[in-house]
Amino acid sequence: MMFSLKQEEQPLFEKTLSTQKKPILPVVWVLTLLCVAFSPVQAALPAVTAEGDALPSLAPMLEKTSPAVVNIAIETRVRAARNPLMNDPFFRRFFDMPERQRPSERRAASAGSGVIVDAAEGYVLTNAHVVKNADNIEVTLTDGRELSAELVGVDEEVDLAVLKLEESDRLTQIAIADSTGLRVGDFVVAIGNPFGLGQTVTSGIVSALGRTGLGIEGYESFIQTDASINPGNSGGALVNLRGELVGINTAILAPAGGNVGIGFAIPTEMAENVMQQLIEHGEVRRGMLGVTIQDLTAELAEAFGVERQRGVVITQVVEDSAAEKAGLKSGDVVTAVDGRPVNRAADLRNKVGMAPVGEKVELSILRDGKKKDVTAVISESSRETAGGEAVSKFLEGANLRDLRKGELQHADAGVLVDEVERGSPAWRAGLRNGDVIINVNRQDVDTMDELRKAVSDKEAALLLRVNRNGGVFFVVVR
To answer: Which residues pair with 124 in a beta bridge?
Structure first.
């Protein structure tokens, strides 16, 4: 223990150390009485609460809530790095090595957190990045039991996953609150397993709501909190002071590599919707409205004759889409969805992205300065994808599909790279989610069929022309 004393206090301290054999009990009693009499903290806190506790504490709430938060340990097989010389056929032939060798693998372990949301069925909610590609999942409860878990479904767009415990006896589930009732300044508590230390509790407040544009996930509307969240907290619980779940901890902003008081959690408003679909279907079946949109700016508001300064402008309506059937038009300003204000494009995108196919949504719009309500039925998204390996071995790991008309503002036609697996040949070639392939081997391509025709040899190198967010460039894939 370290002491910091004022200069005039140091002789007295040295004297006390040098005369330990002398009776000092009266002095201790005097100092104790003075501290009790004059401590502002002691004066501010009640001596005994109504429940008989000595001091106010979060312990009673945590004793009921903490058993619902579990530690998750996963084991994954990872392909070991291969010497680049092994890719050279001349090198292999010179040393008489086989043409094809099974790549060596190593086992990697990692840890995270999860929340029991259904004790009867044994369902656990966690982050997708915690359990993605896991070969073995073990869940440890607060009472020390270790249970095997099966992956029910994953939604990487929101970074959520659902597990099912093989045993569901004597489990504790957490109560789920409506996160839409949260306000900035509300007290919250984060529970999880940071750095594999074991269950840890930190407290703070809600710093902000509806955080978007962070580039963390596909659909973003995060709760920001200053409760300490660190690696291993992912998938853990963010609860209110009643012990009810309001969010799933998922990310931190750590420019220096550690916690700086800026953490993010997925609100239960989004998590519940995704969880229900994962349990029911094993996947999230998202629908589409069929519009391209942009934020309403002051200049656009003036141009459209709109007094409101916040909203979303529809720039294009996709042919034969739910929006067209509902009567929406280019230039309409969306101000609310199902009675909730729409201030930016992410608000509308999140609402539509979370709505299941067939659900009706009520849109409040401004058209020519007049208010109007429109009902749209979310239609199924025609996102039939094909694996890139069926076209070329160098496109393995990429899911490709036809680009729909009006889907992107910066591209009218081409083959959309819907998803790229990190570390795959397509990823190493430089392709990323959202890229649009518009030319292959000097041939323009608008559809998957045209792409297949342009690639005559699956083993040959490719020259791709790619549109990425409006910027066009060439990529040599070999």
So the answer is: 116, 163
**Catalytic residue from among 221, 234, 379, 392:** 234
The encoded tokens of residue 10 equal 């140091």
Options 66, 113, 118, 159, the catalytic residue: 159
Instruction: State yes or no: is 159 an active-site residue.
Output: yes
For this structure, is 129 an active site residue? yes
330 tagged catalytic: no
The token pair that represents 40 in the structure block: 């502002």
CA distance 47 to 364: 54
**Closest by Cα among 299, 282, 293, 381 to 343:** 293
Rg of the chain taking only CA atoms, in angstroms: 29
Rounded to a whole number of angstroms, the distance between the first and last alpha carbons of the chain is 62
3-class DSSP state for residue 465? Answer: strand
pLDDT tens track of the chain, all 478 residues? 333 333 333 332 222 323 334 343 343 333 333 333 333 333 334 445 556 656 788 899 999 999 999 999 988 765 555 555 556 666 566 666 665 555 555 566 678 899 999 999 999 999 998 988 788 899 999 988 999 999 998 888 889 999 999 887 889 999 999 998 899 999 999 999 887 778 889 999 999 998 887 766 667 889 999 998 888 888 999 999 999 999 999 987 766 656 677 899 999 989 998 999 899 888 887 777 888 888 888 888 888 888 777 889 998 887 778 888 999 998 899 999 888 888 888 888 888 877 778 888 899 999 888 889 999 998 876 555 678 888 888 898 888 888 876 667 788 889 988 888 878 888 888 898 889 999 999 899 988 888 888 888 888 888 999 998 888 899 888 7
- Hey, how many other C-beta atoms are within 10 angstroms of the C-beta on 11? 10
